[in-house]
Amino acid sequence: MLPSFDYIRPKSVQAAITHLATGSAQAHAGGTDLMGCLRERIFPVGKVVSLSGLPELRGVSETADGGLRIGALTALSALSEHPIVIKRFGGLAQAAGEVGSPQLRNQGTLGGNICQKPRCWYYRTDFTCLRKGGGTCFAVDGENQFHCIFGGGGTCFIVHPSDTAPALVALNATARLAGPRGSRDVPLEKFFVLPEVDVQRETVLARGEIVTEIRIPPPVSGTRSSYRKVRARRSWDFALAGVAMALRFDRKRVIDGRVVLSGAAPIPWRSKEVEQIVRGKELTVDVIAAAAKAVTSGAEPLEKNGYKLALFQGMIEEELTLMAASA
Amino acid sequence: MSANPTNGPGGITRRNFLTTVGAGAIGAAVSENALAAGKEVAPPQVTPAGRSVEVALRVNGRTHVVQAETRWTLLHVLREVIGLTGAKPGCERGECGACTVLIDGIPRYACLTLAVEVQGHDVTTLEGLMDGEKLGTVQAAFVEADAFQCGYCTPGQVMAVEGLLRANPNPSVEEIRRGVSGNLCRCGAYQHIFKAAHRAAELKAGK
User: Fold this and answer.
1) Structural domain count, chain A
2) For residue A89, is pLDDT > 70?
């Protein structure tokens, strides 16, 4: 049985914000992550503020400039099956289709997916770790095979669990947030918080703030995007390693683009090393090999996750080879 | 409780108690208007922790009005309040799929869904696939393909396949594998489950 909580389903975003700004309130979108956190009592939840009475936060539409507006409550399956998303923002459709299982994608939302809590098994169980206000990270000297190789900063070694977040960062998306002080737009790249900045937060969301929509600018002509996810079980799992790419080509040459890793760091991790190597170049075997090698430069593997280095290198090689073939 | 099986037209039998248990449930049928109003039941004011609220759930075409705590999952209400035990508690954390039901025709985990969130939506459970004593098409295909051993995951597998076929009446093997990828089978009957899904598609197409 879940612990008891106050419950409300407001009829307006403003009312939701007001309720979220008080006490230990948590937003309920699809609920797939929140229900697990409640059941395991990861953090105290005095009040659940359901967003399901806010249909205006659901749906995908093209904006006047040819970009995309995605309501935060849009189900992941709706996103992955949306014709416009598949055609023009393929990397996002792929990423949304790689999340969890069919049932989870039918229930889970895009907003919820980027606001997920970490899956670190110390965080998710009875350990009072740094992220839960304790004094120790238990992963450092513990079972850390699924933890990060970048961005741990000597504090907390989670990986960000989202598949859609790296795709959104690659596509230069922006999150629109609504809160007690009004609304603001935050580029997805600035939305996530490294543990060295604040070990108890995953996002910049302030108290009472929610994500209301995601906006993606129109893709520049010649842009191709993709998402690749490697996991221990093919059926469904979180990423051991993943990569979202949005590369702009001029014929066979890469003009510009972003390469963003999942399963690598506490936030979606831009591999500027890979981006720098492919920029301005044709994706020849040599360029691809150099990029694959560069993806792990600066990595700081823990005792049991060193396998991720080879995994990321191989994945970059395969994905860039696919990109080259389609260019 | 009757244990006398009756023969359905398809020659497949089912014990009475599984279908009649719902009739003894706490829920009472109400009118369509009340259901429509049920969409508004969702409290725009705070329901304090521990307080029960009236929740109108439309399950297998029939509306049940129940008193439920807001923390109760759909799975809990289906099994323990309404008395429909087709959906099974397994992991109760959205990993195993034994609790799969259809909400508005789409497979979801009942264990991760608050009952109060389902008001105004159509819930279909395993029981809802049956025609009286006669097994539904997907169930019959599971029997024909011998698609289970212990059977605990079977209701969830059946609902996942039912949802898949409603969206995609003629799935490929890869689409079937993906369609039931959210349902674990500890006996490892997967190959037969894939065959059953394929057979169910044939049966639904009248083949």
Assistant:
1) 2
2) yes
Please indicate, yes or no, if residue A148 is contained in any of the structural domains.
Answer: no
A-chain residues near B43 (CB < 8 A): 7-9
Q: Smallest CA–CA separation between B4 and chain A, in Å?
A: 36
pLDDT at A327: 74
Could A6 and B106 be called an inter-chain contact, meaning their C-beta atoms sit closer than 8 Å? Answer: no
Residues in chain B predicted with pLDDT less than 50, given as ranges, are 1-42
* Angstrom distance (rounded) from CA A66 to CA B181: 35
Q: Which of A178, A164, A186, A198 is nearest to A79 (CA)?
A: A164
- Give the β-pairing of A210-216 and A68-71: antiparallel
Task: Clarify whether residues A72 and A212 are in a common domain.
Answer: yes
Residue A202 has pLDDT above 50, yes or no: yes
Catalogue all structural domains in chain B, each as residue range(s) with its CATH number.
6-129 (3.10.20.30), 137-204 (1.10.150.120)
Distance CA A254, CA A223 (A): 9
pLDDT for B207 equals 87
CA angle A301, A305, A308 (to 5 degrees): 85
Helix H or strand E encompassing B65: strand B62-69
Whether the pLDDT of residue A121 is over 80: the answer is yes
Give the whole-angstrom CA distance, residue A87 versus residue A273: 28
Determine which of A7, A58, A106, A124 to mutate to test the interface with B (most B C-beta atoms within 10 Å). A7
Give A-chain residues touching B50 at CB under 8 angstroms: 4
- Cβ <8 Å between B49 and A5: yes
| Tens digit of each residue's pLDDT (9 = 90 or more) over A287-306 | 999 999 999 999 999 999 99
Q: Which residues of A touch B163 (CB under 8 A)?
A: 102
